[in-house]
């Protein structure tokens, strides 16, 4: 996905909320595992403390903040569990810097000027739990340095000028529970495999990252909280959050969302809290929240809601799912009579709504196997659309169970290619709060016949030798018109006309092409002739080759024999001369 360089103007409130959250989480002390075995031994002889730091040997805590350090100090005691190097001037973290700190649990390197983290920079930190690298100058995720961090739980990379997140950026740290990638303002690209391997991740922050599309988050099956606020998502697509079956909280505030497409939240079956506040939403697709059985905290305020027929289902859902006195959820912007009222107050009695109208209903289709096909079903954008298949399955915009079939944005059922087994009745079912509309079409897939496939084989053979036809011939009888056959005939006829042994039956270029049935015979005949010629030429060539080879061999043998004789003669002569002398 591409991301723009420009940062979208996030609303002040969202910024405040995000920053408040950051402060809260940053302020809370990191969890320390109950491994206090080291403290008793270290207290007896407290090791020396680096001069730039203050150490509390009992707690294993070493603090070296705001000392203008340009590199990590040497001599940090080996029993250190917390090392705080924040707000210094460190630009490079070299390999093996912390090699002896086997007990280190928290390493704070935030607010430095780190541009590079070498491979091996964190080697030896087998017990590291939290690594903070926020507010630095990293332009890449230092994936290579994460190699040895087998117990890492939290990784903070917020506010670095990271430009892209490649595939497997974090697969060396599958133990991660929390990952903060917020405020990556230079981010332009997130690979589809960026989050591969993070099976245990529970919290992910991608807020204020200049994203224009929700990245592929499907590897994050254990994710419980996702922050996406402050980005720029003009639309959320169907199944945008595929695979996030454990997600409980989803925040997408201040992201300029104007359209949420049908089935966008399918698969978020565990969702409890959904924050869509401060966006540009006027309506949501009918029954968008139907799969969200546990949703009790929708935040919909500060959106320009249209309180007409399209809001009926949402109002009913809110009344049913929320406490009766709740005023949580957005106010009407239109129509003028409703302006300022709560979404919740939209009543069916005050409106005249009608069931969805199918402006483009599916039509019966005869088609041969292997071709692409589309069955249309166009209706209002906010009406729900589902397709009932011949086998009883129901397909929605989010369905991925049928690889050849997809329900497109406009409701069309698209086949990448049809099979004979697809034959049957397809029903489009559109629904809104006022009712439903169904339309069916029969898809008749004709199996590709055996001889037809044989013809197509010859087509590929002849197309290579024949010049392309100057103009395609018009189909003569549309009812009996079979595109595959006619095309084959045309190509073959033109191909043979240029050939050396063209049969006399070949029609002139000016005469209209023959009807498919007569041309079929011609095809057979010309094909046979071509094959015959081809076989004959091949046989002749083979015979000539063999003859030539034999001739050459005989000639060679004669040549070697004469050569041997010459040698013999010479040797004999020499031997005779030597014997004589
Ligand atoms: C908000 O949505 C409306 C359509 O619902 C659209 O015309 C308008 O351009 C959107 N505004 C912004 C800022 O995206
Ligand atoms: C809404 O009702 C709940 C109990 O159902 C009550 O605790 C709460 O105070 C009420 N809130 C308001 C604003 O009335
Ligand atoms: C499909 O083929 C059948 C039989 O040839 C014909 O009756 C029917 O009209 C065709 N349907 C379409 C949509 O072409
Ligand atoms: C729809 O099907 C056609 C083939 O008929 C295919 O080329 C196209 O990519 C499909 N579109 C989508 C969005 O799947
Ligand atoms: C459309 O089909 C659905 C499911 O079979 C059914 O519940 C509904 O009543 C039908 N609506 C109409 C108008 O036929
Ligand atoms: C399906 O198409 C084939 C070939 O066009 C035709 O012979 C057959 O009658 C069609 N069947 C139906 C049910 O339309």
TrEMBL record:
Any one Gene Ontology BP term: synaptic membrane adhesion
Signal sequence residues: 1-26
Domain of life: Eukaryota
Transmembrane portions of the chain: 529-549
Membrane disposition: Single-pass membrane protein
Biased amino acid composition, Low complexity: 500-509
Subcellular location as annotated: Membrane; Synaptic cell membrane
Organism of origin: Callipepla squamata
InterPro entries according to UniProt: Cys-rich_flank_reg_C, Ig-like_dom, Ig-like_dom_sf, Ig-like_fold, Ig_I-set, Ig_sub, Ig_sub2, Leu-rich_rpt
SUPFAM superfamilies (alphabetical): Immunoglobulin, L domain-like
Any single Gene Ontology cellular-component annotation: postsynaptic density membrane
Domain Ig-like: from-to ranges: 356-446
Name of protein: Ig-like domain-containing protein
Keyword terms: Cell membrane, Disulfide bond, Glycoprotein, Immunoglobulin domain, Leucine-rich repeat, Membrane, Repeat, Signal, Synapse, Transmembrane, Transmembrane helix
Main localization, broad class: membrane
Region named Disordered: 497-520
């Amino acid at each position: 996905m591409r991301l723009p360089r420009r940062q979208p103007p996030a609303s002040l409130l969202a910024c405040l909320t995000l920053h408040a959250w950051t402060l809260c989480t940053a302020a809370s002390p990191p969890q320390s595992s109950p491994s206090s075995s080291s403290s008793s031994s270290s207290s007896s002889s407290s090791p020396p403390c680096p001069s730039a730091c203050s150490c509390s040997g009992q707690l294993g805590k070493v603090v070296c903040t705001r000392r203008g350090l340009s590199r990590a100090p040497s001599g940090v005691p080996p029993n250190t569990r917390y090392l705080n190097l924040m707000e210094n001037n460190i630009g490079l973290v070299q390999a093996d810097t912390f090699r002896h700190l086997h007990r280190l649990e928290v390493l704070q390197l935030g607010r430095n000027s780190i541009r590079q983290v070498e491979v091996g920079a964190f080697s030896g930190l087998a017990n590291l739990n939290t690594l903070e690298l926020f507010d630095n100058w990293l332009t890449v995720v230092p994936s290579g340095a994460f190699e040895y961090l087998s117990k890492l739980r939290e990784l903070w990379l917020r506010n670095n000028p990271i430009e892209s997140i490649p595939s497997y950026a974090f697969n060396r740290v599958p133990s991660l529970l929390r990952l903060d990638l917020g405020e990556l303002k230079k981010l332009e690209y997130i690979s589809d495999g960026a989050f591969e391997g993070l099976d245990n991740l529970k919290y992910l922050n991608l807020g204020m990252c200049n994203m224009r599309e929700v990245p592929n988050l499907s590897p994050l099956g254990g994710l419980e909280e996702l922050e996406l606020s402050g980005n720029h998502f003009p639309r959320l697509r169907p199944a945008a959050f595929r695979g996030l079956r454990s997600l409980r909280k989803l925040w997408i505030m201040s992201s300029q969302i104007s359209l949420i497409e049908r089935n966008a939240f399918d698969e978020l079956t565990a969702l409890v809290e959904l924050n869509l506040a401060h966006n540009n939403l006027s309506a949501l697709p009918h029954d968008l929240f139907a799969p969200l059985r546990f949703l009790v905290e929708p935040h919909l305020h500060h959106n320009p809601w249209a309180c007409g027929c399209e809001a009926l289902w949402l109002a009913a859902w809110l009344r049913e799912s929320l406490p009766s006195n709740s005023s949580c959820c957005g106010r009407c912007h239109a129509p003028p009579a409703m302006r300022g009222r709560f979404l919740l107050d939209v009543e069916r009695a005050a409106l005249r709504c009608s069931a969805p109208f199918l402006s483009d209903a599916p039509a019966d289709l005869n088609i041969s196997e292997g071709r692409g096909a589309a069955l249309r079903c166009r209706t209002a954008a906010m009406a729900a659309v589902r397709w009932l298949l011949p086998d009883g399955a129901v397909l929605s915009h989010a369905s991925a169970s049928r690889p050849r079939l997809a329900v497109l944005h406009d409701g069309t059922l698209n086949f990448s290619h049809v099979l004979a087994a697809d034959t049957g009745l397809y029903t489009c079912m559109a629904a809104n709060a006022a009712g439903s509309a169904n339309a069916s079409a029969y898809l008749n897939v004709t199996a590709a016949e055996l001889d037809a496939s044989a013809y197509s084989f010859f087509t590929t053979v002849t197309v290579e030798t024949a010049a392309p036809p100057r103009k395609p011939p018009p189909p003569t009888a549309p009812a009996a018109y079979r595109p595959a056959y006619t095309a084959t005939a045309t190509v073959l006829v033109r191909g043979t006309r240029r050939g050396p042994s063209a049969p006399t039956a070949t029609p002139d270029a000016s005469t209209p092409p023959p009807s498919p049935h007569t041309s079929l015979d011609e095809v057979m005949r010309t094909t046979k002739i071509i094959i015959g010629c081809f076989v004959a030429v091949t046989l002749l060539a083979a015979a000539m080759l063999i003859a030539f080879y034999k001739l050459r061999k005989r000639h060679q043998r004669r040549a070697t024999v004469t050569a041997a004789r010459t040698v013999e003669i010479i040797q004999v002569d020499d031997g005779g001369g030597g014997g004589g002398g």
